[in-house]
Design a protein that fits this description.
402 residues, Dihydrolipoamide Transferase, six-stranded mixed beta sheet, 32% helix
Length: 402
């Protein structure tokens, strides 16, 4: 009796997914727990593995099909994989009269190893138009890993993808279907603007003291904790302290009620090739500086590799986005619902400012708080930003929890 391949639970508030890619075709031998296909939800990409060993007998849902929890994607005919493999091995080891037998070349073996690459590596190879046969694999059994691909990209010039569509007038365009993640981002951001009364207030921060403090302790910090001391840990700490004093910014609207959250799960926006995702630092108020830096690094790596789980992306109470890493000087971030506030960090630039009646050149950063005016008054929003500003300009207050 065939074993059905079922759409698994997709996570909190997610009921549908799109079949992104099949890694096997009907008739292929599959092993237990071997990757069969990927499902793309509005938040993450999920891998579906074989629940039995055998032959992939049927594929009922094709790439691009929308599926829901519990639907059948295909079926596996169990108990045949080992038998077929043994027959194939015997056939390949027995010379056939009149037919030349030969050993596959190194290049052929590498091409065959493509299916053994992790999905993230396959995607990287495909996006950069690389030939797997030309990549030296350093993984087990000569398999190609992500580092091998990145080494190739660092030392070669990769040909850009060919234009797929040309419209009349010889004007080249490329038409690409919008991913489910991109469509969800678009929908959620538009819903946020349509629902919340979004207003943005601004301030600026003199970064000199925190820059000097980081420079002074950076090497010792990295040596002790095994992670670099960045600026984000200071901002996470500053935001948590401000949220404790202005609880409305950490609240959300639920119908006619306001839910004040007494915990601090901070979303940190991460840009990926697929779009912006906001993984969450759980209980950020209980984290040390080193724990914040390690967790941000861990979540950012998972985001870039497409390995974020649903639990990584849900339940945040407030968000931080940093357009400064791309050079942004000023922006008005959009709230990530059902949250009521998001702070935007920007590029640090040296500017002339007045300090104690004298003009000095200081490293300055603009910060922006977008907030839902239905629940947060202007006074609270401005006070919140001032508290973040004071904490960053006097970083010793963060260290002593003042």
């Amino acid at each position: 009796m065939n074993v059905e391949i079922i759409v698994p639970a997709l996570g909190e508030s997610v009921s549908e997914a799109t079949v992104a890619k099949w890694y096997k075709k009907a008739g292929d031998v599959v092993k237990l727990d071997e990757l069969l296909l990927e499902l793309e939800t509005e938040k993450v990409t999920l891998e579906v593995s074989a629940v039995a060993e055998g032959i992939l007998d049927t594929i009922l849902k094709q790439e691009g099909d929308v599926v829901s929890i519990g639907q059948v994607l295909g079926s596996i005919k169990p108990g045949i994989a080992t038998q077929n493999t043994e027959v194939n091995q015997k056939a390949s080891s027995t010379p056939v009269l009149g037919i030349e037998t030969r050993v596959p070349t190194i290049q052929e073996k590498k091409v065959d190893s493509v299916s053994a690459m992790p999905p993230s590596v396959q995607k990287l190879v495909k996006e950069n138009n690389l030939n797997p046969a030309t990549i030296a694999g350093t993984g087990k059994d000569g398999r190609i890993n992500k580092g091998d691909v990145l080494n190739v990209l660092a030392t070669t010039t990769v040909r850009a993808p060919e234009i797929e569509t040309v419209i009349p007038g010889d004007k080249p365009v490329e038409k690409v279907r919008m991913s489910r993640l991109r469509k969800t981002i678009a929908q959620r951001l538009k819903d946020s603007q349509n629902t919340a009364a979004i207003l943005t207030t601004f301030n600026e921060i003199d970064m000199l003291n925190v820059i000097n403090l980081r420079k002074k302790h950076r090497e010792e910090f990295e040596k002790k904790h095994g992670v670099k001391l960045g600026f984000m840990s200071f901002f996470v700490k500053a935001v948590v302290n401000a949220l404790k004093e202005i609880p409305a910014v950490n609240a959300e609207i639920d119908g006619d009620d306001i839910i004040y959250k007494r915990y601090y799960d901070i979303g940190v926006a991460v840009g990926t090739d697929q779009g912006l995702v906001v993984p969450v630092l759980r209980n950020a108020d209980k984290m040390s500086f080193s724990t914040v830096e390690k967790e941000i690094g861990h979540l950012a790596a998972k985001a870039r590799d497409g390995k974020l789980a649903m639990v990584d992306l849900t339940g945040g109470t407030f968000s931080i986005t940093n357009g400064g890493v791309y050079g942004s000087l000023l922006s008005t971030p959009i709230i990530n619902p059902p949250q009521s506030g998001i702070i935007g960090l920007h590029n640090t630039q040296e500017r002339p400012v007045v300090i104690d009646g004298k003009i000095e050149i200081r490293p300055m950063m603009y910060i922006a708080l977008s907030y839902d005016h239905r629940i947060i008054d202007g006074k609270d929003a401005v006070t919140f930003l001032v508290k973040v500003k004071n904490a960053i300009e006097n970083p010793e207050r963060l260290l002593f929890d003042l």
